[in-house]
Amino acid sequence: MKMKQLLSNLKGDKVIWSFLALLALFSFMPVFSASTNLAFGRDGDGNTLGYLVKHLAHLGMGFMIIYFVHKVPFHYFRVISRIGLPFVWGLLALTLFKGTHIGGANASRWLQVPFIGISFQTSSIAAIILYIYVARYLSKTRETPITFKLSIIELWVPVFITLALILPANFSTTALMFAMVVMVAFIGKYPLKYIGFIIGMAIAGLLLFFFIAKTFPDSKFFNRVGTWSSRIENFRSDKPGEDDYQIEKAKIAIASGNLYGLGPGKSVQRHFLPQSSSDFIFAIIIEEYGLIGGLLVLGLYLLLLFRFVIAAHKATTLFGKLVVISLGFPMIFQALINMAVAVELLPVTGQTLPLISSGGSSIWMTCFALGIIINVTKKEEEIEQEMKEAAQREEALQKLIDKQLEEDQHTETDNYSIQDSSKNPMDAVINK
Region 108-123: what's the mean pLDDT? Predict the structure, then answer.
């Protein structure tokens, strides 16, 4: 009974809820298996159960985030995106200038919450706020013609400020965010000639960034540029390197899986593959569950993408359509990028597999975006329910009107009857 009551409180698209539950349940075995290298590593104690419990806590918190976010009135997100963008800029600037270093390299993608000890990637929340902001602007300008000069100030300046604050620490995330913003702008009927000019501006800005980075190579803001260049060079050549080692171990894991895999928990390359529970977990999945398991995971993400398309199509407002597209599509593209890196179709990017890879902030931000998407579908259901109730009320009212008309018709017929029902024939004469 409690389970039935709980399910009744889950509003929105039930199919999306089901896919999320399937991905979350499937993630436990790969994470439990792949965390072996962490448990028996330099700082590990050999206890893999702790990593499983930690992953369970992260997913539990994530689904709580989905639940509470999908209960928030949908129109609030318009205001949140506008107010939250300057706040996000502050977080990004703080993260960038904080200058966290790991082994001499800039690791300023992460910001640690004081007194709690939880670290999160500020670019993740920045992406969500930016996507909603873009969707809000494009839906607002539907009634009025878009002028390039005004759109530069209101739309593209905030976009480029956000991307500029993310770029020094994370090129792959910046590129993905820009591609998604351009896609949403295209879907939102932003003029194509303006989009071409914006892409040209972005390329020019990127070249300027690389020029400055080469001019000041010792600056902490540009020391990630060398890492990006080496990754691209290693991807294009056979030169051995750290990324090459990861890719080779990932390919060995994939090749070992064959069609049916070695079986759950029987991975060998998990002991040698760095980031096996996060960035390269897809390779571990194929090693243990085979090509069939890998294709099933890919199929789940593609089905989820298809469901996002349906949700966007059913949305009653342009803002809702653009929000579903802008938040749902990057999630699926991130998953595809993670899989492509594992099979060496793309250079190493550091993108995780949504809802499957271990990690706290990445799971929570993904769940936050999913909560907003489900909120859109919940709004659709509420509108549909209201229309259904209105139709029922109209039908009931029409029945009452028909009944009253029928009664009035019978009364009128009785009043004008030519038959005399009196017992005494003389009553008509004496007016009785």
Answer: 70
Q: Model-level pTM?
A: 0.81
Q: What is the pLDDT of residues 292-330, one digit of tens each?
A: 999 999 999 999 999 999 999 988 888 999 999 999 999
- The answer to whether 312 and 325 are in contact (CB under 8 A) is yes
Q: Which amino acid is at 414?
A: D
| Strand stretches in 97-254, DSSP E | 101-102, 105-106, 110-112, 119-121
Q: How far is CA 307 from CA 10, 25, 232, 360, 421, in A?
A: 17, 19, 34, 25, 72
CA distance 87 to 214: 31
Domain range annotation of the chain: 2-388
Which ranges constitute the DSSP H helices of 315-360?
318-342
Contacts of 379 (CB under 8 A, 6+ apart): 74, 315, 316, 320
Query: Do 121 and 110 touch, CB atoms closer than 8 A?
Result: yes
Place of tokens 């194509």: 192
Rg (CA), the chain: 30
Cβ proximity of 304 and 19 under 8 Å: yes
| CA angle (303, 306, 307) in 5-degree steps | 90
DSSP 8-class letter at 155: I
Q: What is the percent of the chain where pLDDT is above 90?
A: 31
